[in-house]
Write a structure and sequence with these properties.
The protein is an all-beta fold. The protein has strands spanning about 5, 10-15, 20-25, 35-40, 45-50, 55-60, 65-70, 75-80, 90-100, 105-110, 115-119. It is built from no helices and eleven strands.
């Protein structure tokens, strides 16, 4: 099974930056899309950014122009560069991918990393 491990979270002041990293236990070359989600207590997990195997990207409206997702298949990692952070970006951020053979794909989630933005 593929394991995803996030790192890079922490406490930052509003306007600051953080870079999250997601490391996969196996090659990401054969993984189509890899996502970053976030969740705050009492709310549903929401998609923040998505990157395809061809490096096309999708962003939530709330982070467009501030966050950048990228992937490095040589290092089996996906990064989320977060700039101009706002208090409302405070959440646990999760890395996600659909992995496995065709017809038997399953959700792989990381354990999450806390991002806290102070005002």
């Amino acid at each position: 099974q593929v394991q995803l491990v996030e790192s890079g979270g922490g406490l930052v002041q509003a306007g600051g930056s953080l870079r999250l990293s997601c490391a996969a236990s196996r090659s990401t070359t054969n993984i189509d899309t890899i996502d970053w989600y976030r969740q705050v207590p009492g709310k549903q997990r929401e998609l923040v950014a998505r990157i395809s195997s061809g490096s096309s990207t999708v962003y939530a409206d709330s982070v467009k122009g501030r966050f950048t997702i990228s992937r490095d298949n040589a290092k089996n990692t996906v990064a989320l560069q977060m700039n101009s952070l706002k208090p409302e970006d405070t959440a646990v951020y999760y890395c996600h991918a659909m992995v496995g053979p065709i017809g038997r794909k399953y959700h792989a989630w990381g354990q999450g990393t806390q991002v806290t933005v102070s005002s």
